[in-house]
Each structure stands twice: as structure tokens, then as C-alpha cells.
Design goal:
This protein has 14 helices and 19 strands. A hairpin with a 5-residue loop joins strand 17 and strand 18. It is α/β, with parallel strands linked by helices. It folds into 4 domains: 144 residues, Rossmann fold; 92 residues, Beta-Lactamase (2-Layer Sandwich), CATH 3.30.450.20; 77 residues, Signal transduction histidine kinase, dimerisation/phosphotransfer (DHp) domain (Helix Hairpins, Orthogonal Bundle); 154 residues, Heat Shock Protein 90 (2-Layer Sandwich). The structure holds adenosine-5'-diphosphate.
Length: 492
């Protein structure tokens, strides 16, 4: 134990000399200061953090009890022993009630006095140690409050003992739902995943590689990069959220699969048609030759459209795409596109493509080519996702200084929960093509981005199985520019 500092306060100067001598003889490692008045003692106490204080209870000016109260105030927790006169039991009791550590009655029993003082010093030094550790812990806890990684502690019994704010933010589980509960119970999926988390026996970088593992919380799958460090009382786990990265990875994988499938289908048709045309062993009549050549032309067109979409999406992402902003005669443009689409889908006799628009409409401001592309995508989708045929209607109308371009179909429809997501890049409602319709998932993403760049918005209304309505709203060329940034809207 380090040197202990003790202050003795007594107006009896004789005792003030005798006591330290007696103590120094019997105790090791103590340093003793003395004061003959309470006022002087208080000054010292304010300057030095004593391990114990011994004071006479009866002194002129300020008595021991008053001094005790001052010590409580200036140095709370400092053990104070009071020296009481013979028979002053009441005072002694009062002193103990007032927070004194112990009392020693005169004449002083030296053995008792030394033992009590030693105990007092020990208590004080232990208190100090505990306080130091508490501060250190508090500091660590405060550091943990501010890290971006989720951190939690599971003790030897498997109970969660610490759960930092990042852990709350990442998982959505508040501390009160987790702390003090078995990890297997508080963290759904932990029982399955916990054992796979790499746990190092020494802390520090490189001691173990984190693993990316899924944890299902409230029906939400989280991918966490997680590792642990074991210590005497349990394991501290640290994790970060890789859900988005993971989703992007999956999306990329899906995209590669979809695109290669989408490329292979027209390629196979082109290859097959060309091979048939090249065969010398069979006689092809004119109409058969023409239909094979049409397949080659149509499928090549499809291939170049896919390549174009990929390039365009990439340009939109990188901000390399610049749109013209001119007055566009939408009526003429829409009529042309509808005509083109009618001949493109000539073989879809189950589809009737209709156009409804007023006799005259003011021009919109935008990029004619890009607007054409938006319309082609929407009409193409309307036909594509109407495998059982039906009416596809294109409507143009003016509404509060905006032009509305509506594409309505009677096809498969879009489940409510998917209606926002279909505008996402690569997003397809049915990537496995169980409904038998192919695509890259880029069409609506491109539509949304192009329309947004023309200061317009695109929205969808649909119910599963009952067809869909896509609405593109664009500012009329005469309309004042809106300040707000129009986004994809959704009306159910
Ligand atoms: P793609 O058609 O290449 O898959 P899109 O971005 O054009 O990509 O469309 C995304 C998804 O939205 C499609 O996979 C489809 O599930 C859904 N979708 C788009 N238009 C319609 C529509 N008119 N009817 C039903 N579903 C549609």
C-alpha cells in the first residue's frame, strides 16, 4: 500500500505531540500532519486529500461535529475518527450518526486506536481504487458510445451485459430489449449464428478475421461482419452492418445472370435463323426466308436495345448524360411512337394499342429523344406484362400547367409492396421469370432518371392481377419552373 496521509486535529497540544509519535511507532507508511484548530485543519483538508482524519470532538471555536460536517462537504468519503471525552457517549453516538467512521474514548486505548485507524485507511484506499476503476470503465463505456461499430458483451452465462448505441441503431433493438437477457433469446437467430462467429483470445488488430453472417431480426435479414474477443468474464463482440453491400452484391450477381440470359435468348434466335438460312440441304420458300430474316432483324434490335440500356444507365449514374431542353411537340411524338409500337407488336393480335389525346396541346420542355425512349419503355412494358393480351391505352392530357402522359394496361399488375421498388436499378418483380417475361430491370430506372432530369415525375398505380397505370408528368414549356425537386411518386 502507498504511503497514507493522516491529519490529527486537537487543541490539546500535549496530545498533538504524543499521538503522532505513538502512531509512527506502531504503523508503517504513514505521514502525519497536525492542526491545533478546526479552522487550520479545514485549510489543510482543502489542500490535501487525506486518507483519514482524527479529531477531538470538543474544541473551542468549531467543535469536532461541526468539523465533521465541513469534511463531509469538502472531502466526502474521508473516514473521520472522533476522540471523545470520558463518558461522552451521547456525543459519540451523535458523531456516528453524523457520518463519523469511528470514535475513540479518552483515555485512548492505543491498540484499539491504531487498529481502527488502519482499517479506516484501508477502506479509504480501497474506495479510491474502486473510484479509479469506475472512472476508467466510464471512459471505456463513453468511447463505446461513440464508435460506429455495434459492440456488445455476452457474459459467461450467455447473458448480454453491454449493448452500445451503434448496436441499437444497426439492429433496431433498444438496450432495454437486450440487456440482462440471454443472447439466444434477445437476439433472434443468435443461437444459430453465434457459434460461427470467430472469437480471438487476444484483443488487437489481426488477431481474428471477422465473418459476414446473417442475423434475422423482426423478419429483416441483416448481414453483419462480426468478430469477438474472449476475456475472463465473457466475450465482447463487435460488428458492422454489411446488409446494403450484401444486397448490392446480390443485385450485381442477379444482374449478371439476367443480362447473360437476356443476351443469350436473342443470340440463340439469330444464330438459329442464320444457320437455317445457310443450309443447302433444304429448300426455303420466299416467305420462310423473309420470316427468318425478320427474326434476325428483330432480335438484333433487341440486343442493341439491351446494350443501349446498360450504357445509358451507366451514363445516368456517372452524370455524363446531358439532356436537351427544347420545346417538344408531344402530340406528334406520341402519335409516332404509338404507330411504331403497333408495327413492332404486329404479331400480338391479342393486344389493342389505343391512343387518346385532345385536339391540341401546348408543347412541353424537355428532350424529345429521351421522351421517346421513356414512352417506348412504358408501352413495351405494358405489352410485355400483358401476356394474356388486353387493351393498352396511351392518354395525353393537360393538368394544372403540367402535361400528363398515361400508359394504362390490363396485364399482370404490380403487387403493392413492389410499386416503389420497380423504379430501382436492376429491380425486377420476378427475376426468376416464373411469369415467363424477360428483361434487365433497367427500363423503369432509366424512365425515372430521364423524367426527373426533365423536371418531371413518374408514378404508378396498380393492383396485382388487374393491370397498371403509369403516369409521367412534365412541365409545359410555358409553365414557370418549379423549385421543388420532383421525385418518383406513388399513388395506391
Ligand atoms: P424489366 O421490364 O426489364 O424487368 P423494368 O425496369 O422496365 O425492367 O421494370 C421493372 C419491373 O417492374 C419488371 O420486372 C416488372 O416486374 C415490373 N413492371 C414494369 N412495368 C410493368 C407493367 N406494365 N405491368 C406489370 N409489371 C410491370
Amino acid at each position: 500500500m502507498s504511503t497514507a496521509r493522516v491529519l490529527i486535529v486537537d487543541d490539546d497540544v500535549g496530545l498533538l505531540e504524543a499521538l503522532p509519535e505513538a502512531l509512527l511507532l506502531r504503523m508503517d507508511g504513514v505521514e502525519i500532519d497536525t492542526s491545533d484548530t478546526a479552522a487550520d485543519a479545514l485549510e489543510r483538508i482543502r489542500a490535501v486529500d487525506y486518507d483519514a482524519i482524527v479529531t477531538d470532538i470538543k474544541m473551542p471555536g468549531m467543535d469536532g461535529l461541526a468539523l465533521l460536517r465541513e469534511i463531509e462537504h469538502a472531502r466526502p468519503g474521508t473516514p473521520t475518527l472522533l476522540i471523545t471525552g470520558h463518558g461522552e457517549h451521547d456525543l459519540a453516538v451523535q458523531a456516528l450518526r453524523g457520518g463519523a467512521y469511528d470514535f475513540v474514548a479518552k483515555p485512548i486505548d492505543r491498540d484499539y486506536f491504531v487498529a481502527s485507524l488502519e482499517r479506516a485507511i484501508q477502506v479509504r484506499q480501497l474506495d479510491r481504487q474502486v473510484e479509479k476503476q469506475r472512472l476508467a470503465l466510464e471512459l471505456h463505456a463513453r468511447v463505446l458510445e461513440h464508435v460506429d461499430d455495434g459492440v456488445f458483451l455476452v457474459d459467461g452465462e450467455g447473458v448480454v451485459q453491454h449493448w452500445n448505441p451503434a448496436a441499437h441503431a444497426i439492429t433496431g433493438l433498444p438496450p432495454e430489449a437486450v440487456l440482462g437477457r440471454p443472447a439466444d433469446e434477445a437476439l433472434p437467430g443468435w443461437s444459430a449464428v453465434g457459434a460461427s462467429v470467430p472469437v480471438a483470445s487476444v484483443p488487437g488488430p489481426g488477431s481474428t478475421e471477422a465473418r459476414t453472417l446473417p442475423l434475422e431480426i423482426d423478419g429483416r435479414e441483416l448481414w453483419l461482419s462480426i468478430s469477438g474477443v474472449a476475456f475472463d468474464d465473457g466475450v465482447v463482440y463487435a460488428f458492422r452492418n454489411l446488409t446494403e453491400e450484401r444486397a448490392l452484391e446480390e443485385l450485381k450477381g442477379e444482374f449478371v445472370a439476367t443480362v447473360s440470359h437476356e443476351l443469350r435468348t436473342p443470340l440463340a434466335a439469330i444464330y438459329g435463323s442464320a444457320q437455317t438460312l445457310l443450309r443447302e440441304d433444304i429448300e426455303l420458300d420466299e416467305s420462310r426466308r423473309a420470316s427468318l430474316l425478320r427474326v434476325i432483324a428483330q432480335e438484333s434490335e433487341r440486343l442493341s436495345r439491351i446494350a443501349g440500356d446498360i450504357l445509358l444507365a451507366n451514363n445516368l449514374d456517372s452524370g455524363r448524360l446531358h439532356l436537351a431542353s427544347t420545346k417538344v411537340d408531344v402530340q406528334q411524338l406520341v402519335a409516332e411512337v404509338v404507330d411504331e409500337m403497333r408495327s413492332l407488336f404486329a404479331d400480338r393480335e391479342d393486344i389493342s394499342l389505343e391512343l387518346n389525346m385532345p385536339a391540341s396541346l401546348p408543347p412541353v420542355s424537355g428532350d424529345a429523344d429521351k421522351l421517346r425512349q421513356v414512352l417506348i419503355n412504358l408501352v413495351d412494358n405494358a405489352v410485355k406484362y400483358s401476356p394474356n393480351g388486353g387493351r393498352v391505352e396511351v392518354v395525353l392530357e393537360e393538368n394544372e400547367s403540367r402535361l400528363r402522359l398515361i400508359v394504362r394496361d390490363e396485364g399482370l399488375g404490380i403487387p403493392h409492396g413492389e410499386q416503389q421498388r420497380i423504379f430501382g436499378k436492376f429491380y425486377r418483380v420476378d427475376p426468376q421469370q416464373s411469369r415467363g417475361v424477360g428483361g434487365t430491370g433497367l427500363g423503369l430506372y432509366i424512365c425515372r432518371e430521364l423524367v426527373r432530369r426533365m423536371k418531371g415525375r413518374v408514378s404508378v398505380t396498380s393492383s396485382d392481377g388487374k393491370g397498371s397505370i403509369f403516369v409521367v408528368e412534365l412541365p409545359l414549356a410555358s409553365a414557370p419552373q418549379r423549385q421543388s425537386d420532383p421525385q418518383v411518386g406513388q399513388r395506391a
